[in-house]
């Protein structure tokens, strides 16, 4: 079956990220007394952020009873505020090389383009608005992790786009991302192609561990893969 839907991650895959997401979460955690290095946060940044926060707290809070839903919610609220400010005002919010050209080429071939993310929808919408991707007609869907029952690695964000786009089989879907959880999401959704990109947090060697169908250094290679 030909590919009819391409689902891309955001930070590190389609949008430049200089560990900005991890830095914001590290800052939010530090306000509550948890000093977590960016290097520890980086590998789990693709997860839904409250899940990531809870996981980090479990590593740094010896008293399990202190890890309450309220604490997680408060840290996440601070993180969201920092991310919204960052994506609204920072000068370096730009697409990664060849991203917009790849979106355009996919749309010209009749492939629907979707974005899914570990961010909540409010952050995702700020990014898309800043880059004017809807106005440019480059994307069809944006799904935040708070819009489904569970975020990545569960397949629900991809499945939501499939339903909205009338895609009947995951064999018509390609998933592209820069983290382990992107690869796991693609496998859990049974996507035809699961493509790791080396423009984000994970190296080629690290991505290989999660068995993508392909690993690429340039997002435009997605076109070569789906047209082979």
Enumerate the spans where pLDDT stays under 50 for 5 or more consecutive residues.
none
Give the helix tally: 10
Q: How would you describe the shape?
A: globular
- What is the overall pLDDT average? 95
Distance between the termini: 12 Å
Structural class: alpha/beta
CATH superfamily of the largest domain: HAD superfamily/HAD-like
The CATH class of the largest domain is identified as Alpha Beta
Give a summary of the structure in a few sentences.
By secondary structure, this protein is an alpha/beta fold. Helices cover 43% and strands 11% of the residues.
List the helices and strands and how they pair.
Elements: E1 5-8, H1 20-30, H2 38-41, H3 49-60, H4 69-89, H5 99-108, E2 112-116, H6 121-131, E3 141-143, H7 156-165, E4 173-177, H8 180-188, E5 193-197, H9 204-208, E6 214-216, H10 221-226
Parallel strand pairs: 1-2, 1-4, 2-3, 4-5, 5-6
Helix pairs in contact: 1-4, 3-4, 4-6
């Amino acid at each position: 079956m030909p590919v009819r839907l391409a689902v891309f991650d955001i930070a590190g895959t389609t949008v430049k990220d200089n560990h900005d997401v991890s830095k914001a979460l590290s800052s939010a955690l530090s306000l509550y007394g948890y000093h977590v290095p960016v290097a520890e946060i980086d590998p789990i940044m693709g997860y839904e952020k409250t899940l990531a926060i809870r996981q980090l707290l479990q590593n740094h809070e010896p008293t399990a009873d202190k890890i309450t839903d309220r604490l997680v919610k408060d840290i996440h609220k601070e993180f969201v505020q920092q991310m919204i400010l960052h994506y609204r005002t920072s000068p370096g919010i730009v697409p990664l090389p060849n991203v917009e050209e790849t979106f355009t080429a996919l749309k010209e071939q009749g492939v629907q383009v979707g974005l899914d993310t570990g961010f909540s929808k409010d952050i995702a919408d700020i990014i898309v608005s800043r880059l004017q991707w809807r106005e440019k007609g480059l994307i069809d869907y944006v799904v935040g992790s708070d819009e489904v029952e569970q975020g990545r690695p569960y397949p629900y964000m991809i499945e939501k786009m499939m339903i909205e786009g009338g895609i009947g089989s995951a064999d018509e879907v390609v998933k592209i991302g820069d983290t382990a959880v992107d690869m796991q999401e693609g496998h859990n959704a049974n996507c035809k192609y699961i493509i790791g990109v080396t423009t984000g947090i994970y190296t080629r060697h690290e991505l290989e561990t999660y068995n993508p169908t392909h690993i690429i250094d340039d997002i435009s290679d997605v076109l070569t893969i789906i047209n082979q």
